[in-house]
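Handout, section 4.2: multi-component inputs.
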Amino acid sequence: MIADNRKMDGVEDWWKRAVFYQIYPRSYKDSNHDGIGDLPGIIAQLDYLNDGTDQSLGIDAIWFSPFFTSPDHDFGYDVADYCDIDPRYGTLEDFDRLLEEAHKREIRVMLDLVVNHTSDQHPWFMESRSSRDNPKRDWYIWKEGRGKGNRPPNNWRNNFFGRAWNFDQLTGQYYLHSFLKEQPDLNWENQAVREAVGNVIRFWLDRGVDGFRLDVAHIYCKDQQFRDNPSLLRGLNRVGGLAPADRLPLANIMKKLSLPELQVRKYNQHMPETHNVLKEFRRIYDSYPAVTSVGEIVADDPELIASYYGSNNDELHMNFYFELLQCRWKAGAFRRCIELWEKTLPAGAWPAYTLSNHDVVRALSRYGHDRDADKRARLLALMLLTLRGTPFVYYGEEIGMKEALLPKEKLKDPIGVKWYPLHRGRDGCRTPMQWKAGCGAGFSTAETWLPLGPELEQRNVQKQQSDSHSLLNLYKQLIWLRKTLPALYEGSYRSITDGIAEDCYCYLRQAEDQALVICLNFSSQQRQIILSDLGQPQLLFSTSPATAKGGIGQSLTLQPYEGCLYALK
Ligand code: TEU
Ligand code: CA
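Output:
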């Protein structure tokens, strides 16, 4: 049965209804036995993602982390050619086939646009660095050193610990890099840069791509006086977002200490001019049918993140709200987080949520390793797939993949390689997809580029496909159910707090002629919920296999860590 919203052809705002799935191409499926995932491997797995029946996961769109030509200092986030596929992943022809096969399955394709910086191997930078009067010199940010000691032009730090300026002997100047020195920042004040990147966007849209995820879109433009950032002490009382008591302890430390830059990022991010760049991009998207975009905007203040929708809804279609990733395991923390974002969003702005991505510890591992971890994963899945907004599922989340604790000698991510054991880097959330138990996990027959994650025996697709109570089947059931419920894919959101225990989080989702209530019990105890004056709830879905479906009275009983979805008559 094709659900109502499957037919999204011609639906301009398909992205509001869609369930997205993030694939880290290097770790999804290896087709040519080199231990590295590739595009043909992804093509082979598309039916798992959506074959039109509820036997498949049922996702509607894929966000691919970069597979463009890259020397892999930052594993694809250092791009050396925006219009070609890195040979490790395949060819442009492979990409065209992937796009065609995805579209056949009504799966749309979103690419990762990493244009705050390029690789230092990009021809643009090679030219720019070749001489002070090269025509492309001003495509990057070059500055004289300061004072007798030829110190860096200012005190800016990069995002991976360390200073943000690298002295280039050849021409005797520093260039700016907000990340690794192998990732020189483009100069977004330069109209030629804007045009060149605009042509990259058109190149992929002409090929039929459906959207873009914009990497660190909040740091494109910098203060043109290149003033020193205020010292750390000025930043200790950072405002905005979750209260410290609602934020995970490590996230509190990172925020309090402005880690990793140890300073207040006042002059090298969130500059007003960046909004003009995003408006230019949006005009390009809007000149093609049904294109979407989502921003990776990192800020303390929700208002600041919300500003990237644009004053006239003319910048980003969606923005992630990463505070959700930092919530402690408390019903109130999640509720306050969502309420704050819902209150902050401008009229018409559409949220995007995720529990995990390729930069953060996998959600299941963020919330503990005890035997109830899997119940918590089921509860989080119900929340992610029923909040107002577009859900992004991270590959492996659907089978409960956990964070891998890798030994130093196995680390690849530059953060972990450089800062182990202070920081283990991001490899732990990037381990190969676990298709089945056994050597290579069905990902590859060769030695895998990263070790496999933990608990492979039960955390793999093959085992969970055949278990009707598995997490994988919970995701499938929920994603397919969601397609039939307008209150979920286009309805409003309102928290319900009357009569609700502090360790439960309940909310109402309403569309024209449909009202749903979602009740999430974050506690390890049974909870009673009284939904007074909300009509007769009828249970549609529970995360607990033991709970029977069907009509129930006013008083709802939730098992420990149980989440339920009810329809209201
Ligand atoms: O991540 C950006 C990132 O690491 C943020 O936390 C950053 O520190 C913050 O936005 C700065 O204000 C993106 C990619 O997701 C990541 O994988 C890349 O390594 C990074 O950008 C550089 O491209
Ligand atoms: Ca391969």
